[in-house]
Each structure stands twice: as C-alpha cells, then as structure tokens.
Amino acid sequence: MAITEIIAELDAEIGRLEQVRKLLSNGGNAQLGNLAAKKSTGRKRRKLSPEARKRIADAQRKRWAAQKAQK
User: Fold this and answer.
1) DSSP 71
2) What tens digit of pLDDT does each residue of 56-69 get?
3) 32 near 20, Cβ under 8 Å?
4) CA pair distance 20, 31, nearest whole angstrom
5) What does the domain layout of the chain look like in residue ranges?
6) In 1-71, which ranges are continuous DSSP H helix?
7) Which SS3 state, helix, strand or coil, does residue 47 take?
C-alpha cells in the first residue's frame, strides 16, 4: 500500500471520528444509526462460487503433493 493511500485512509477515518465526536457532543444519539449504516470505503471483497473455490483448493493440493513428492 502506497503512502498516499495510507494518508487518504487516515484522513477518511479522522473525518468519520470527527463526525462521531460532533454527534456525541450534541447528544445526537438518534443520528448514530445513520453513521453506523454507512459502508466503509475499504477494499471490497470478491465472492467466489463454490466451484471456483473447489478448483483453487484442488490446484493447491496438487501443488502441495508435487512439493511433497520432491522431498
């Protein structure tokens, strides 16, 4: 991760924390639900199908078997 990406994530987190602090200092507990429902700006995870997971697992087992056979 590049330094500029880390700084951008830190700035985003600081902004979220400042919003929470502002809400808490004003006693706005009812508005916290909206903030919690907001999705993070982090990396999205890709979902693999069960068939794809099985292919990947089988390929890894094949690599392990080949490595073990060499020893």
Assistant:
1) -
2) 999 999 999 999 99
3) yes
4) 9
5) 1-38
6) 3-25, 32-37, 50-70
7) coil
